[in-house]
Every structure is written in C-alpha cells, then in structure tokens.
Write a structure and sequence with these properties.
Blueprint: H1 14-19, H2 36-47, H3 50-53, E1 68-77, H4 83-100, E2 108-115, H5 125-130, E3 137-142, E4 153-162, E5 172-173, E6 189-193, H6 200-211, E7 214-217, H7 218-231, H8 239-245, E8 251-256, E9 259-264, E10 267-268, H9 276-286, H10 289-305, E11 308-312, H11 315-319, E12 325-330, H12 333-346, H13 353-369, E13 382-385, H14 391-406
Parallel strand pairs: 1-5, 2-3, 6-11, 6-12, 7-11, 12-13
Antiparallel strand pairs: 1-4, 2-4, 8-9, 9-10
Length: about 400
C-alpha cells in the first residue's frame, strides 16, 4: 500500500518531486492527474502554505463562507485482513468522522488513510469512493511496524469544510482503537433496535444489570415527549406545531435505586409512560425530525459520558453508530400482542387481542415509513427472533455476542 514515487506522470516532474512519496491515488490505487488540484488545495490548507501556493480559501470554488476548514482524526480496528472487513472498518470510521462534525461528502477536501502492515487486502480509500466522496484527494499509506503497537488498525486524517471551528472538531476512535485515546474514544455501548413488544427494554435492563452499565430507555423519552406535546394541546400530525413546541421541552433522566426515571421539568412521569396514549404519542411525534434531533442529541450525550445499553428504533444507525455491539430484536405480531396484553393485565387494564394486534401493526407501518430514521435493520446488527424464546435465552444469546466482541 506504499505510495508511488512518480505521482503524476514523469518521476522527475515538479509535482512528483514536490510530493515525494505522498502521491494521490484513486480507489484502485492508481495515481491520477485529475486529483492534483484537490490535493494541492488540501495540502496547502493543512500545512498553512495557502498564500505561497496561491490556493487559499478565496480561490477554492467549492468553499462556502459559512464553513471552516478543519482537520479530524480517526482510528479503528478491522476484524480481519480481508477486503470486506477493511472496507467495512474504513467506512464506519469515515462516516463517524463526518457525522460528528456535520460534514457532507461534498465538503471533504482530503483524506489520508494509513494501515498497519497486517492490513494489505484492500485500499481503505475505496470505502470513501463508495460513500460518494469523489472530488476529494484520497491517499493511502502503510505504517511502519512498532513492536507492541496496535494490530489491524486503520487511521485517517480528514480535511473538510465544516460549520464547526477547529477547537470544536470531534475525533473518532472506534473499536479496538479506543485504547489509543481513551479521552477521545466513545464509551462501550450496546445498541438494541426493533419494533414494539419484542423485548428490547427487558433485554436492555438485563444486560445493564449483568454488566454493571447504565440503561437508557430511549422509547421512554419519546413517550415523555408525546405526553408533553399532548399537554400543550399540539396536533401531533401537524409537523410545524410539533417542531415549534418541542423546542420548549425540558426532559431529563435520573437514576433512583438503579432504575431509570424520566422527568418533564421537575415532574416524574415515569409511571405514565406505558399507557397506550403515551405509546401512540411517541410514535406520532417521533416521525417529526425536530423531535428526533432534540432527543438524539441528549441520548448521544449520555452515550459519550458513560458505558451504556440503549434500546429504541434507530439506535444502531443514528444514535450510537459507534456501538461495539448492535442487536435487532424481532417477533411475530401475534407474540407481541400477547406480551402487550400480559403487561396491561398486570396493571389491571383490560384489552382485546385483535385491537392490540391492530395497534401494533399500525405503529409498525408508521415507524417503518416515516421520512426521518425509519425502523430498519442495521446491516451490522445481529438479528434475533424472540417469538419463541424466553427471557434468559435471549439474554444468553446477547451475552455471547458481547463476549465475542470483547475477545477481539
């Protein structure tokens, strides 16, 4: 994966002499003339030689006045030295670097990827091309081997336009690379997705207790939001009303005796969250982007501050994309309806099987067809059908997945 000496044509050309071993390459590892301007712009901004090379911010046609040029660092470990695993790891790292810094693929100016010597089955820059990063200069290099250093590691330095200042840039250290910078790394996280009634909360609570980490019921936060909006007299199907009202919500989580309690302002509304009205309000309000943006930020803040297990409908892909363990729970509508009826019966509430099943199917349809973060199976998630499983069986399967990840 070493760089070619002759970067753009002749080995003794001015470009080749100036770049030395740092020749830009495309996704196939082939040096190209087309990338020279982007590379020089990126290198100039990164090195502070914009004026000398005549390619400062004013001359960059793609730069926007409301964006700042920032550098972002990233690192991750690959599962194995295969093309599939290298590209999967490179993509996960790159996507997280972009997401953390509100950077679009068109805003990327340059990415330098490096890999340890035990990773040589693919150029990690291919992952960036697959993401649609086609105008930026992409480079790959192999690192020198240092005894005792992290194995099967990919690193990246990304240069991009971002609404953030350099002092606000967030770096991504994922997987086994988290040990390199524990101060910057994400905490250990378990993400559980799935429709209602499949046992997500039960499994999340069991894992949190077994592992001694925090449990965050994100569904409870959306139910609290639904309660808040109904109290405000908001039409939950009116996106404009909902978007405006949700800005005034004051929602927080506290722990009492190991249990999660959800507060609206100073009021503990935890005991109100399992009612059918709260569930309906959660599903309808969650379809509004402003609601999800508000709550996702809070959930991510929790995930960065403590090891945690979260369950919901978009945890794997959007809330905790850095989660080391991702699980998608599922079950048949009939099994879910029976479980829901049992929950209601425990609370002394009567229910009808057909009505409960119909409500479940209607909510599934809303969750799977909403515009923002629809319910879907994350490609990296392990799928578990709990229709015919007991609580302990589901927990043991999940613990097996966690042990597998921990041993890497």
């Amino acid at each position: 994966m070493a760089f070619a000496q002759s970067a753009f044509g002749r080995a003794n050309s001015p470009a080749a002499q100036a770049l030395g071993p740092y020749a830009a390459r495309d996704a196939r590892g082939i040096a190209t003339r087309k990338e020279l301007p982007a590379f020089w712009r990126g290198l100039a901004r990164f090195s502070g030689f914009s004026a000398a090379l005549g390619c400062g911010r004013a001359n960059a046609s793609s730069a926007r006045a409301d964006l700042n040029m920032i550098t972002v660092r990233g690192a991750i470990t690959a599962r194995s030295n295969t093309r599939e695993d290298i590209l999967l790891a490179a993509r996960e790292m790159t996507e997280e670097m972009l997401r953390l810094n509100s950077v679009g693929t068109a805003d990327v100016r340059m990415i330098l990827y490096t890999a340890t010597k035990d990773l040589d089955a693919a150029y990690p820059a291919e992952a960036a091309r697959m993401m649609g990063i086609t105008e930026a200069s992409l480079m790959c290099a192999q690192e020198m081997h240092v005894a005792g250093s992290l194995q099967m590691a990919l690193r990246a330095t990304l240069l991009a336009d971002s609404p953030k200042l350099q002092s606000e840039a967030e770096h991504a250290y994922l997987g086994g690379a988290a040990k390199l910078r524990p101060d910057l790394a994400k905490r250990f996280a378990i993400a559980i997705d799935g429709p209602s009634g499949v046992g997500k909360s039960t499994l999340a609570k069991d894992l949190a207790k077994e592992l001694g980490i925090a449990y965050v019921d994100t569904g409870a936060m959306y139910r609290a939001a639904g309660i808040f909006l109904r109290r405000q007299g908001v039409d939950l199907l009116d996106k404009e009303q909902v978007s405006k009202a949700i800005q005034n919500i004051a929602i927080s989580i506290k722990r009492v005796g190991g249990d999660q309690r959800v507060l609206l302002g100073d009021e503990d509304v935890t005991d109100l969250l399992r009612s059918p009205e709260a569930a309906d309000g959660a599903s309808k309000s969650a379809a509004v982007s402003a609601v999800r943006e508000k709550l996702v930020k809070l959930q991510q803040k929790i995930g960065r501050e403590a090891d945690a297990v979260m369950d919901g409908r978009d945890i794997c892909a959007k809330v905790l994309p850095w989660a080391q363990v991702k699980i998608y729970l599922d079950a048949s509508p009939e099994a879910r309806a029976r479980r829901r009826m049992a929950e209601l019966a425990e609370k002394g509430l009567e229910s009808d099987f057909d009505s409960v099943k119909r409500d479940i199917l209607e909510r599934d349809l809303r969750d799977k067809t909403r515009e923002d973060s629809p319910l879907e199976i994350c490609p990296e998630a392990s799928y578990i059908d709990t229709s015919c499983m007991g609580r302990e069986e589901v927990k043991e399967i999940a613990l097996g997945l966690i042990r597998h990840v921990s041993q890497k």
